[in-house]
Specification:
The complex is a heterotetramer of chains A (about 300), B (about 280), C (about 550) and D (about 325). Helix content of chain B is about 70%, strand content about 0%. Chain B has about 280 residues and is an all-alpha fold. Chain C has 16 helices and 20 strands. The chains are: A mainly alpha (about 300), B mainly alpha (about 280), C alpha+beta (about 550), D alpha/beta (about 325).
Chain lengths: ~300, ~280, ~550, ~325
């Protein structure tokens, strides 16, 4: 287990460093100055104030100096100060992490429960109505535009049926999270349904399943004793990849549902040219991705003995 | 895979062919100019005889705009996926072939691309270049090549282990020749599948970027920008969004079905590689 | 304004001339809440529609109108905008007297205003707040206003230990010396000059735990989602505020806001053109619409460094070529008033005698031909995606300009980049919205030749006659005379046409039937003095 | 003809459903195995021997299905028995060993558990009891230190060890019939003999009959009393083991026999090389008319091209299906 972690870490560190460098590079060529962080409809900006702020933020230093400072600070966990709100970026992002995690987890719970179940049922009865319907549903889910689907959910469940609140974080309760989680989870759900079906079909054709059948096992036991765990290994890869990238993919849904997550903060910060905040958000999203993938690696070790002893 | 291989191939093929036809024949089948035929007196007319899909806030015929929009949306899909395939295959082939430091570098880059969600990457590029078709092509064409890269690299490594490449070298073939004659044909099938599925992704990404305000540069229409512009009127003038929304859905569905169908033919062993 | 008159809080300072439409709208708003006696208690759910986040709750650090939506509940400034009477009024002072030269103002401050930490406000707090704003290390946006106080610039540069123009006479008397003869109310009603308690703003976490003088005290902030404030019992207006709490919900996506409002999840919503039409047509929703002629002028600036636009005739031709009225009617859905010149309808210097440019393509062609462009020219037109003054408008303009030979290539940019591009002058034509009030003189200064581009003279306007009128106006103490000079200056702008005059915004807020006491604030419709707002028992909010 | 018949397969036909038509992957296959008898089924891959075994187990899967014929186990017809009935038969009365020990065991389950499942399924044992018996079963198949091995996962075992585990599973409930489908093909030659010996020994001890399926005529002949040869879905010859070597009747069998390396034989025949049978087994869709061996047969004549040969009974219960046998 420690070995896996160590090996993983050796892979992660260069990736994180590369991300830091890339993000800095991208945003040092971004058009639009710091003024954009302050501008608002129709209001003029005092040039003297801007000049002073530039100095204060160290934006007049040459790029290499800024890069060196940036890297030095980032490595120590200091992500700088937001251009826009002037609070530390760590604090700015800190309050967004929990809502973001909640949304991502909820979306994944939806995707896994619905997707894996559908995939399983479809694989156990290939060619049946269940199979056809769930697979047509899955491929349709993959073809949906996220914001469009979200808007439709909003209109149907909030406005027409009045079952759920339409937007926002509310008190952090369950009712507010359902619609955004479904809108966000529909893509991974579709993908998981398809992967699970393929994986289970693969395994149902595997030699060891034939062995199990030759033992005189009922199909239910075959699935329970021999298919589930093996399918899990295949499914978990996709779950990991989806899960990890979901925080970044949540941008659109967070914007639409006014969900206070990291993704929406990032987009707003891009538009406001709040470079330290953008850098912080991307770093956060990447770290989340890497953390999830590390967890998936550990999950493999737990599930698959072949890896443990390798 | 979903339906019988043949069925999804057929339905997908027909949908995609229809979209292609609309794009190519736009000047012929469109009723009006998509930009200049604006007439504010005709604004927001529901679908009817004169305007089959209704008109938008500017009084432009939505049907005609969808026809012309097909050109942009399909261009985005095709060009960006061609870019992705070219980048991915080039990096993957060379990395697998030459190995060593270059391979490490490419693998690192692939990991990086996987770690940063492509939508965010595209968003950053769009912010740097500003909205517009060229920016969009660059943003979507540079950000999702990791699949084809991995595919190409894996194929080279497998051929290497089977001794094909040594054999070709002994015969005096050059590196490039080996890559093109030995490796490329082997991955063409799966590559086409990845690209087909990727096209659907690119069209959806264009819509998402339009929603975020970083899409195509109006007034020339793209489906994503039409959908995005119409979202505020979803209650008052639903046809503004229903038709572009449906068009996007059917086209992407077509591409996904086609990809599935092609995979059954071109890449039969890949049941679980990419669902 | 009489030079040495004592102006009582609440008395008329300047009578604004209002257009019939605006007055009507105000009447409607006033009647909306007039029938019942205000109820104590309840929760108001106010929408923040402009941005997806609040920038900062420390009002000194932010120039944004969005942040002041909350700021108006927690904080107070020296002056306020009295929407009912359309004028500036004293807020934290009970009276002010001005010296003969109009430079020295002596304020009698309130002695019943308590900060939310329980301490009483004194003259020291005003001085401390203004000093904080001017502190060179801080570079706070309010500096542009405070700079009008004598000695502020020296303090900002570190040449003085304190602001010379601010003198404490006693705890509740403050003497303020200005550098120019201006109306200080225009400078000290903006939220970025709020009076804050020194012992609190020196704490590092002040922005996440703001303390002010306003009718509501801060409760919680979930960034990107909402801010909750609760009634401040020691607020200085007796019996107010009414509501127990206000929840400010962030809802920047118009389509989602529409759903939420119809779903009764929020009490107010800001409407765009499309929804304006829908809400007006709906028998229920149409009862709760508040319309205000805001002080924003939407226009297309024409950069004279782009050769064709250096010719006045070309600029006029653009104004003639476009059927502006039709665009306003059909595309903006009448959610705007046709612009005549730069100053808005609500400005006292607005000239009702002047008719806007007519739609006359033939004349436009003629003017273009006279200017040497019979075949037109190609134009790069920079625009944001804004629904009311961005891409959709440009799309509607394209065919009109095309007909007189001007081939438009739109250049779409992100809305936040507009300021950057305006300051750099990196455009041929650019469409945007500009705040044009309430201080008409300051507004017209943006076309004063000595105003640098970086301040706001984005079209490098340079007209000696205009400059002269402005200089005179600044020296004139008599309001009527001054307005007449400004009217003349505004008419020069009309003729010179440095911009395509598009419209003055009509801000529209939808509100639920249980919400009362909203004010039609023309400086910004979302800026409410919440102590006057109340909800009746039919509100579904707990 | 054995008097005490255990398994009787009569006129077995296995249908293969393709796009629009159905092919007969196996047809007219009949054989009989007595109690405790070892019977061999030989043929090249694709000839239908493995699916014949699966048909007996009732494990045919789409697109394959039972097209006709009878399968009689211990006097009872089981070809259309209910799934529950078949499940009860499988494992308890018929055990089966598969070709690939690498993939035939669940990689994520300890081998002990995979054996123990048999006792839980068929003998109502508790898991702990079943694990004890699994250990005993491992000891019987001569896996060293079975107490430790039962916790091992398949990837920790060698191919030979895994096949021993498979044998332990198949024989766990002392079935009356063991079907061994190419049990040693994937193993090293040295291990092959050990496995075969072990299988034979254990079956003899338990009185279990064996249906041995292999492409290796030599192997089968060593172990089995009688051997049937299949070609392209049909049995073409059946004889006692010694006789099939001595007097192969069908040209195909002769080819198989000739292709075997035999000690001594080679030197006697001088420098003559091993003879292979030219050509390949035709695919199901392209079975030639007449005798299906005709494209590869040196003796093929006109009649072979249009008339399928009928079965010619020989001495005892031997038979051959050839126009020109002998």
């Amino acid at each position: 287990m420690l070995l896996v972690l160590a090996r993983r870490l050796a892979n992660v560190v260069p990736t994180v460093l590369a991300v830091i460098a890339l993000v800095f590079l991208l945003f040092s060529v971004l058009p639009g100055s710091f003024i954009s962080a302050m501008s608002e409809e129709g209001r003029t900006i005092d040039p003297a104030v801007m000049e002073r702020m530039r100095k204060e933020m160290g934006l007049d230093d040459p790029v290499p100096v800024r890069f060196a400072k940036y890297v030095a600070h980032t490595v120590t966990g200091d992500l700088g100060v937001s251009f826009r709100t002037r609070e530390p970026v760590t604090q700015l992002i800190g309050v967004r992490v929990w809502p973001s995690l909640k949304l991502v987890f909820a979306a994944m719970v939806f995707a896994i429960t619905v997707g894996v179940t559908l995939g399983f049922l479809a694989a156990l009865r290939p060619g049946s109505i269940v199979d056809t319907v769930s697979m047509v549903g899955a491929i349709s889910g993959l073809s949906l535009s996220q914001f469009w689907f979200g808007l439709m959910l909003m209109y149907l469940f909030a406005l027409q049926l009045k079952w759920l609140p339409s937007f926002g974080y509310g008190d952090g309760g369950l009712s507010h999270i359902i619609l955004p989680a479904v809108a966000l989870g529909v893509g991974p759900m579709a993908l998981l349904a398809r992967t699970t079906r393929a994986a289970v079909l693969d395994i149902l054709n595997a030699d060891f399943v034939r062995t199990a059948r030759s033992k005189g096992m009922s199909e239910r036991l075959v699935v329970k004793w021999h298919v589930l765990r093996n399918a899990l290994v295949l499914v978990i890869t996709i779950v990991g990849l989806q899960f990890g990238s979901l925080m970044g993919q949540a941008v659109v849904v967070e914007k639409l549902f006014a969900w206070p997550g990291v993704g929406s903060l990032m987009v707003d910060s891009v538009f406001q040219r709040d470079v330290p905040a953008v850098q912080g958000c991307i770093l956060m999203i990447v770290l989340f991705f890497l953390a999830i993938n590390t967890m998936v690696d550990i999950a493999y070790v737990v599930i698959d003995p072949r890896i443990r002893y390798r | 895979m979903t339906l019988k291989g043949g069925t999804s191939l057929w339905i997908g093929g027909i949908l995609v062919a229809l979209a292609l036809f609309v794009a190519v024949a736009a000047p012929v089948i469109a009723l009006t100019d998509p930009v200049m035929a604006a007439n504010l007196m005709n604004a927001e007319i529901p679908p009817g005889l004169e305007f089959p899909f209704g008109t938008d806030v500017q009084g432009r015929d939505i049907y005609s705009r969808i026809c012309y929009g097909a050109r942009i949306s399909l261009t985005v899909g095709i060009v960006s996926q061609t870019c992705n395939s070219l980048i991915g295959v080039t990096l993957g082939l060379t990395a697998g072939y030459w190995g060593g430091l270059w391979d490490d570098l490419v693998s690192g880059l692939t990991n990086l691309m996987l770690a940063i969600p492509s939508l965010i990457f595209a968003l950053a590029i769009m912010a740097i270049l500003g909205p517009g078709l060229v920016s969009l092509l660059i943003a979507l064409g540079l950000t999702s090549w990791s699949y084809s890269c991995r595919l190409a690299r894996a194929q080279v490594l497998s051929l290497k282990s089977q001794g094909y490449i040594q054999a070709a070298r002994i015969l005096g073939y050059g590196d490039l020749r080996i890559m093109f004659t030995q490796v490329l044909p082997n991955i063409l099938g799966p590559l086409i599948v990845i690209a087909t599925l990727g096209m659907g992704g690119a069209i959806l990404a264009e819509a998402a970027l339009s929603f975020l305000g970083l899409g195509i540069r109006p007034p020339f229409p793209s489906w994503g920008s039409m959908l995005s512009e119409a979202r505020d009127q979803i209650n008052t003038a639903p046809w503004l969004s229903v038709f572009p929304g449906l068009t996007i859905f059917l086209t992407v569905l077509g591409l996904n079905l086609l990809g599935d169908g092609l995979r059954d033919i071109l890449d039969p062993q890949a049941t679980t590689r990419r669902a | 304004m009489p030079t040495n008159a004592i102006v009582q809080g609440g008395s008329v300072m300047r009578k604004l001339v209002w257009s019939a439409a605006a007055a009507l709208a105000l009447l409607g708003a006033a009647t909306a809440g007039a029938q019942q006696t205000p109820r104590k208690g309840g929760t108001i759910r106010f929408t923040s529609p402009y941005a997806a986040t609040f920038g900062s709750l420390d009002l000194h650090t932010t120039p944004r109108a969005t942040d002041e939506i909350v700021g108006k509940a927690i904080n107070r400034t020296l002056y306020k905008w009295d929407s009912a009477n359309n004028k500036l009024a004293l807020e934290l002072a009970t009276s002010v007297s001005a010296s003969a030269d109009g430079l020295v103002h002596t304020y009698k401050l309130r002695d019943d205003a308590y900060f939310h930490n329980g301490r009483k406000m004194t003259a020291d707090d005003v001085i401390a707040s203004f000093s904080r704003i001017m502190d060179g290390k801080n570079a706070f946006p309010g500096a542009r206003y405070v700079r009008v106080i004598k000695g502020a610039v020296e303090f900002e540069k570190g040449q003085a230990k304190e602001i010379a123009g601010l003198k404490k006479i006693d705890d509740f008397t403050l003497e303020m010396t200005l550098t120019d003869r201006v109306e200080p109310g225009y400078y000290f009603f903006d939220g970025s000059t709020a009076i804050l308690p020194k012992e609190e703003f020196e704490k590092p976490n002040f922005a996440s735990n703001p303390v002010g003088l306003g009718p509501f005290k801060f409760k919680e902030h979930i960034p990107g989602s909402r801010v909750v404030v609760e009634r401040w019992e020691k607020f200085y207006k007796p019996g107010k505020p009414y509501a127990d709490r206000i929840v400010f919900v962030i809802m920047a996506e118009a389509a989602a806001r529409d759903v939420a409002f119809r779903n009764k999840e929020i009490d107010t919503s800001i409407l765009g053109p499309a929804q304006y039409v829908a809400y007006r047509a709906d028998p229920q929703l149409s009862k709760g619409i508040l319309e205000v002629a805001e002080m924003f002028t939407r226009s297309m600036r024409m950069n004279p460094s782009f050769k064709p636009f250096s010719d006045k005739r070309v600029r006029q031709a653009v104004n003639y070529a476009i059927d502006t009225d039709l665009i306003i009617k059909r595309l903006v859905k009448d959610k705007a008033y046709r612009a005549v010149s730069w100053l808005p309808l609500s400005s006292p210097a607005f000239d009702k005698a002047v008719k806007p440019y007519a739609f006359d393509p033939a004349k436009a062609k003629q003017l273009l031909a006279d200017a040497g462009y019979p075949g037109g020219f190609e134009l790069e037109f920079t625009t944001s995606q804004n629904e009311s003054w961005g891409m959709p408008i440009v799309e509607a303009m394209i065919p009109y300009l095309d007909k007189v030979g001007i081939k438009v290539k739109p250049k779409l940019i992100e809305v936040n980049l507009l300021s950057d591009i305006l300051i750099k002058g990196d455009f041929q034509a650019i469409i945007s919205s500009s705040l044009t009030g309430p201080d008409s003189l300051a507004t017209l200064r943006c076309f004063y030749s000595k105003t640098p581009r970086s301040a706001c003279n984005y079209v490098d306007f340079n007209n000696p006659a205009f400059d002269k009128l402005l200089d005179e106006a600044a020296q004139t103490a008599d309001a009527a005379k001054r307005n007449d000079l400004l009217r003349q200056a505004n008419n020069i702008l009309y003729d010179e046409a440095p911009v395509w005059f598009f419209n003055y915004n009509k801000a529209v807020m939808a509100y639920q039937p249980w919400l009362h006491g909203l004010q039609a604030n023309p400086t910004e419709i979302t800026h409410q003095y919440y102590e006057d707002v109340w909800v009746d028992e039919t509100s579904p909010a707990k | 003809m054995t008097t005490d018949s255990l398994l009787k397969v009569d006129g077995l036909r296995i249908a293969l459903a393709a796009d629009s038509t159905t092919y007969n992957a196996v047809e007219e296959v009949s054989f009989e195995i007595g109690r405790g008898e070892a019977f061999g089924l030989v043929g090249e891959s694709g000839c239908g021997k493995s699916i014949t075994a699966l048909a007996v187990m009732g494990l045919l899967k789409r697109p394959l299905s039972l097209g006709g014929g009878k399968i009689v186990l211990d006097g009872e017809e089981i070809q259309s028995a209910s799934p529950a009935k078949m499940r009860d038969l499988r494992g308890r009365r018929i055990g089966m060993i598969f070709q690939e020990p690498m993939t035939a065991l669940n990689p994520l389950s300890p081998v002990g558990r995979q054996i123990a499942e048999m006792f839980v399924l068929h003998q109502d044992a508790s898991w702990s009891e079943a694990m004890d018996r699994a250990e005993e079963a491992l000891r019987q198949v001569r896996v060293p230190s079975p107490a430790r091995r039962i916790k091992d996962y398949p990837h920790q075992l060698s191919g030979g060890m895994r096949q021993r585990v498979m044998i332990a599973i198949a024989l766990a409930c002392s079935p009356e019939l063991l079907i061994a489908d190419e049990p040693t093909t994937a193993l090293d030659v040295t291990v092959q003999a050990e496995i075969i010996d072990l299988m034979a020994e254990l079956c003899a001890a338990k009185g279990t009959a064996i249906l041995m399926i292999s492409h290796d005529l030599g192997l089968v002949a060593n172990m089995c009393k009688r051997v049937a040869v299949m070609y392209a879905g049909r049995i073409v010859e059946a004889q006692p083991a010694e006789e099939i070597f001595a007097t192969p009747q069908h040209p195909y069998t002769q080819g198989l026999v000739n292709s075997l390396p035999r000690l001594g034989e080679r030197s006697r025949r001088g420098q003559q090389r091993l003879r292979e049978i030219a050509g390949v087994v035709p695919s199901i869709q392209a079975y030639p008319p007449g005798c299906r061996f005709n494209p590869r047969c040196l003796r093929a004549s006109d009649i072979c091209l249009d008339t399928a040969p009928a079965i010619t009974p020989l001495q005892g219960d031997s038979l051959v299906r050839c126009h020109h046998h002998g």
